[in-house]
Amino acid sequence: GNSVTQMEGPVTLSEEAFLTINCTYTATGYPSLFWYVQYPGEGLQLLLKATKADDKGSNKGFEATYRKETTSFHLEKGSVQVSDSAVYFCALSESVGTSYGKLTFGQGTILTVHP
Amino acid sequence: GAVVSQHPSRVICKSGTSVKIECRSLDFQATTMFWYRQFPKQSLMLMATSNEGSKATYEQGVEKDKFLINHASLTLSTLTVTSAHPEDSSFYICSARGGGTFYEQYFGPGTRLTVT
Question: Is A98 a residue whose pLDDT tops 80?
């Protein structure tokens, strides 16, 4: 079956530091890959996505590149802000088959950014 | 943007009672809704998928008689935890998908259930 593995947190950084959250996956088909963010007290929001190999998703200064050869989708940001403090989830979804449209999530990584 | 609400946000109930959680899509029609369960410091686990007017499809290992899902309209799905026990205590999250791409899901803020 499909699975997603994220680096364990929590991750604590100072403002303007560089962020990397590692994510690797296993899938039976050709999944689309996502990063979701959950701010305190709110629902998950789609941060960025990539639907095929070598695609780069980007949003709000965050980037992730779909690497099929390493089955990875690492999240990066060059300079984090206090407002980026949240829980980040890596996820995948299949576009065909019995898992169509279903999201498989990693365990989530808590990010705390200090001023 | 698409908004999904959940009610209640927190509920405490006694062991043996039933609890109903509502999930509503506020500004779009949700043809499909998903229910997830999240344990502390763990990932979201898909419990079931429901399509409006159809019976829900449950993931392996999820007791359908314990977790009753009803998707009676295009804007409302309910999850009823029947005869709740302390091990059912968890964070329950719903998401909804309209007519967009296969991966577009909009998430509710979640419901914290505590069974005493």
Answer: no
Contact present, B47 and B36 (Cβ < 8 Å): yes
- In angstroms, the CA B64 to CA B73 distance is 20
Higher pLDDT, A97 or A68: A68
Nearest to A101 among B44, B102, B108 (CB): B102
B10-13 and B111-115 beta bridge pairing: parallel
Please return the burial class of B74, using the count of CB atoms within 10 Å of its CB with bins 0-12, 13-18 and 19+: middle
User: Are B95 and A44 an interchain contact pair (Cβ–Cβ within 8 Å)?
Assistant: yes
d(CA A6, CA A72): 10
Residues 21-40 of B with CB under 8 A from A: 32, 34
Nearest residue on chain A to B40, alpha-carbon basis: A107
pLDDT in tens, B16-58: 999 999 999 998 898 899 999 998 777 899 999 998 888 899 9
